[in-house]
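Morning run. Coffee first, then this:
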Amino acid sequence: MARILAVDDAAETLLIMRKTLKALGHEVVTAADPEAALELLADERFDLIFLDIMMPKVDGLEVCRRVRSGGINQHSKIVIFSAKSDQELVQIAQRFGADFYLGKPAHIAKIQEVAEKMLEA
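And here it is:
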C-alpha cells in the first residue's frame, strides 16, 4: 500500500481521486489548496503526489518545484494533471520536476494505470 497525496481546488476531483486510488488499496490524503498541500508535504512522507496546475495563489508547478528543492518528499513521484494539455506545458512540468503529465478529465482506469506505473518505477 502506498501513501498518495492528491491536490486540487475542485472538491469533485478530489473525491474521484480518493475513491479511485483507495480502490487499489492505497492510503489517500487530499488537500484542497496549495498551502495545505505544502504543510502536509513538510511533515508527512508520500510515495506519489498528484498536483493540479491551476490553483489559486500558488500553482501546482510551484508546489512541484518546492517539493523537488528538498525535504522528505523530494524523491516522491509527482504527477501533474490539468485540463490544459499542450506540449509546451508538458515540457514545463517536466522541467519543474514532474514525473508524468496527465490530462483532465482522466478516466478512472487511466488514473489507476498512471498511479500503478509511477509506484512501480
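The longest strand covers residues 77-82. Good start to the day.
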